[in-house]
From TrEMBL:
Residue spans crossing the bilayer: none
Molecular function as annotated in GO: endonuclease activity; hydrolase activity; mRNA binding
Record organism: Runella aurantiaca
Family: Belongs to the HicA mRNA interferase family.
Name of the protein this chain belongs to: Type II toxin-antitoxin system HicA family toxin
Pfam family, one: HicA_toxin
């Protein structure tokens, strides 16, 4: 089972992240408190790989147990 971009975007927005800009097929989300930005690949309805999903969560300081 994979994770789609809509699911990870929902988690990010619940944790204070917002869409900063779009560059091609990547949506760049930003958090001013953490002073970080993270790209989220949007490729239609294709799932993100499990590893990429957890890598994005780690970059955003979100624990997978909080999901």
């Amino acid at each position: 089972m994979g994770y789609n971009a809509k699911e990870i975007i929902k988690v990010l927005e619940e944790n204070g992240w917002y869409l900063d800009r779009i560059k091609g097929s990547h949506h760049i989300y930003k958090n001013d408190l953490l002073k970080k930005s993270v790209p989220i690949p949007i490729h239609g309805n294709r799932d993100l790989g499990k590893g990429l999903f957890y890598k994005i969560l780690k970059a955003c300081n979100i624990d997978k147990d909080d999901l």
